[in-house]
Amino acid sequence: MPHDHSDHDHPHSLLPSDPALRVKALETILTQKGLVDPAALDEIIDTYENRIGPRNGAEVVARAWSDPEFKAGLLENADPLLAELGFYGRQGEHMVVVENTDDVHNMVVCTLCSCYPWPLLGIPPGWYKSDAYRARAVREPRKVLAEFGVTLPEGCAVRVWDSTAEVRYLVLPQRPKDTDGLDASALADLVSRDSMIGCGLAGAS
């Protein structure tokens, strides 16, 4: 998908050249003044990056696996269904869900910065925002996937989706085999954050 950021009024154009360094500097100052507890801050970040956020997306995937009507609606127009579940708001105003199949494996990147579906996946991981991932995911996606431990059959195409400030993507991973008897909660436990970006497989440890 095109990632047109030519508009100088785009929100990303207002960011400093290296926001991560500025955030770190601000955190250091606040810590030195005793206004921020680094351990508490790390715990909050970990909670939203690895637990609360990704669990929302995992619930959506688990329901799609077990409810064909919900899955069809999700792939056609995800926004109203996600809004009904309460997974909407800033950083997730317009969502597109793309499905992995035996023939196509999808992965998501934001080549300019770190556009990411916060309501579904929480805070983006550091590697997603890195220059290396943003450049290489488009140029050599199979090598990047291999570094995440994902080796695809030779006949499986890789499709890379470039997120923008207007459109965010969620990968619907393939349901693992032999999971027919699992309930929604157990299915959700099989869904990792990385699998919903396309850099992992559901059920993989």
| Beta-strand residue fraction | 5-15%
Q: What's the tally of helices?
A: 10
N-to-C SSE string, H for helix and E for strand: HHHHEEHHHHEEHH
Secondary structure: helix percent: 40-55%
Please give a structural write-up.
- Helix 3 (68-76) crosses helix 4 and helix 7 crosses helix 8 (141-147).
- It contains ten helices and four strands.
- The protein has helices at residues 19-32, 38-66, 68-76, 78-84, 118-121, 126-129, 131-139, 141-147, 184-189, 193-197, and strands at 95-99, 104-109, 157-162, 168-172.
- With 205 residues, the protein is mainly α.
- It has a single domain, classed as Nitrile hydratase alpha /Thiocyanate hydrolase gamma (Nitrile Hydratase, Chain A).
- The chain is 46% helix and 11% strand.
- The two termini are 30 Å apart.
- Residues 1-17 have low confidence and may be disordered.
- Strands 1-4 form a two-stranded parallel sheet. A two-stranded parallel sheet has the order 2-3.
Q: In a nutshell, what does this entry contain?
A:
The chain is mainly alpha-helical and 205 residues long. It contains ten helices and four strands.
